[in-house]
Amino acid sequence: MEHDVFLADCPARTTLGVIGNTWTVVVVAALGESDMRYGELQTRIGGISKKMLTQTLRHLVDSGLVARSAEPPRHYSLTDLGRTLLEPVAALVRWAEENAERLLDPVPD
């Protein structure tokens, strides 16, 4: 089935909304390094509030991108579907790191 993200009711557009927010990208990148417990994620991801981390993890679990272990100590890991995001997320993170200064302090034309 083909999708067209320019159509208002396109499922792919909804998917971009799921994966396109800052904290989603950062959490996926962190979990790409290793499975982590909640506290480890909070330590690894500077500046994220407990509320935002909880919301982001819940959203990623509900979307099928992250799995939460059933038994304590609970940890989070990328699912097979979540792992398919690692390459594009890594490319996006790399691009952001390389171009942050240019975007935040643009040179006038």
Automatic annotation (TrEMBL):
SUPFAM superfamilies: Winged helix' DNA-binding domain. One of its GO terms (molecular function) is DNA binding. Gene3D superfamilies: Winged helix-like DNA-binding domain superfamily/Winged helix DNA-binding domain (1.10.10.10). Residues 10-104 form the HTH hxlR-type domain. It comes from the Bacteria. Keywords: DNA-binding, Transcription, Transcription regulation. InterPro entries: HTH_HxlR, WH-like_DNA-bd_sf, WH_DNA-bd_sf. This is DNA-binding HxlR family transcriptional regulator. The lineage of its organism: Bacteria, Bacillati, Actinomycetota, Actinomycetes, Propionibacteriales.
